[in-house]
Amino acid sequence: MTTRRDFIGGMTGAMAGVAFVGCELMNATHVHAQPAPRRREVVVNGRRVKTVDVHAHCAFPDAMALMGLKVNPETLVMGGERIKAMDEQGIDVEALSINAFWYKADRDLARQLIKLQNEKLAALCAAQPDRFVAFASVALQHPDLAAEQLDDAVKKLGLRGAAIGGSVNGEELSDPKFHPFWAKAEELGCLVFIHPQANPDFEKRLKGNGGLINVIGNPLETTIALSHMIYEGTLDRFPGLKICAAHGGGYLPSYAARSDAGCTTFPERCSAVQIKKKPTEYLRQLYFDSIIFTSEALRHLVAEVGASQIVMGTDYPFPWTKTSVDHILNTPGLSDADRAAMLGDTAAKLLAIKS
To answer: For 11-20, how does the pLDDT look when each residue is reduced to its tens digit (9 = 90+)?
Structure first.
């Protein structure tokens, strides 16, 4: 049996084959060990807070190659810049995730690819245990295999949960076929990070100026995914699930009352599956990252879901979130406990990060 210890190696060897990339695998940072500058320390009311970024991307080019994909070599830069950026921004620990590009893979290829990725993630984290933890990859198009992969990743490799897409080849995460995966995630008590990905059904209307596939399409997919999990009873069937939704949960928390009003005004549309609570009540058992850009948006998210359900994200390497720490520190109306929880206390508990 292979264990996490088997993957512990020197810093250079473990991190040589990783690229820190954005949501569309377009920008990458090749990682080599370099001395890090002095780290910014984040203090809330005199207490040093260990900050945790739950939303940071990476990829392994050799795993991508199995699907005929590659990272543009022109975008690769020295990876010491990732540590430098973390130190400058005040990020102590990053939870790394890989956006799913393998949902079309057959079972054998998916098994090979996921094994490679998860072993490399474990090696990377073992080489820098004070700076990185990781979400496992899983082949969710084969739900029983995904459950097996999650079990191995958590128990044998020390990964802290799973990162999945907002849909799987056009199928909703609430589909009963995915119940084996959700059952395993609930059994393990680990965090599942849901990140949207390009959806051909959206792209037809989102072409043109403005980058709408990302700007509108990504939060819309998350909104749809969470809504189905609420209305189809997935969150009732698996009440112990720990789910974190990227980008502040998409549009759902911003317009959540319409979900309640829909069932009140048109009860026949909510009768196929009898959910146990009002739709908005389920938001308080989910977690959301803080990538919502303005203090007013963060204040509203806190009002809708509670500060205890929000964790910090940067979406690295996208440059629009260089101020994630200050976004939380500078939002008015938050208590010191709220700020500390969002900056890292909550995520540290969810991801079993030692203080």
So the answer is: 445 666 677 6
Look at the chain and report how many structural domains it folds into. Answer: 1
pLDDT of residue 2: 37
Residue pair 324/290 in contact (Cβ under 8 Å)? The answer is yes
Model pLDDT, residue 171: 95
**How do 19-21 and 28-30 pair as beta strands?**
antiparallel
Where in the sequence is the domain holding 220, given as residue range(s)? 14-33+47-350
Ordered strands of the 132-134 beta sheet:
52-57, 93-97, 132-134
Angle between helices 179-188 and 143-155 (to 10 degrees): 20
By the 10 Å C-beta count (0-12 exposed, 13-18 middle, 19+ buried), 303 is classed as exposed
What CATH number should be reported for the domain holding residue 65? 3.20.20.140
Degrees (nearest 5) of the Cα angle 115, 118, 122?
Answer: 135
- pTM of the predicted model, to two decimals? 0.90
For residues 299-304, give the mean pLDDT.
97
Bridge-based pairing of strands 161-165 and 191-195 is parallel
Any domain includes 212? yes
Domain for residue 5, yes or no? no
Q: Give the separation between CA 57 and CA 22, rounded to whole angstroms.
A: 6
Residue at 42 is within a domain: no
- Residue 302 in tokens: 């806190």
Residue 313 CA from chain centroid, whole number:
9
Residue 3 lies in a domain: no
Cα separation, 159 vs 140, in Å, equals 17
The contacts of residue 269 (CB under 8 Å, 6+ apart) are: 262, 263
